[in-house]
Amino acid sequence: xxxxxxxxxxxxxxxxxxxxxxxxxxxxxxxxxxxxxxxxxxxxxxxxxxxxxxxxxxxxxxxxxxxxxxxxxxxxxxxxxxxxxxxxxxxxxxxxxxxxxxxxxxxxxxxx
Length: 112
Prior knowledge:
Helices cover 69% and strands 0% of the residues. The protein is mostly helical.
């Protein structure tokens, strides 16, 4: 019963919630995705949206925050992986040296 009164009280605003396809998002595309989101929110994409839908149309997304957080996380993991790789290499070298030392001790009589 209140529908006609509600429709007459304010202009109708259309909105869409579009979820990105997670299978299409890849880490190697981070820079391109960030620039595409920026263009949609305040660049040429927004101008095309104004021309196509309405001059009052607005586009907002939370993807820019997600992409920024992912970029920081990916940048912080690089040094951690480097430290882990060098640590694993050091441990492997120590194990090989110890094994060589033990083999040398066992064969000392043969070598002397």
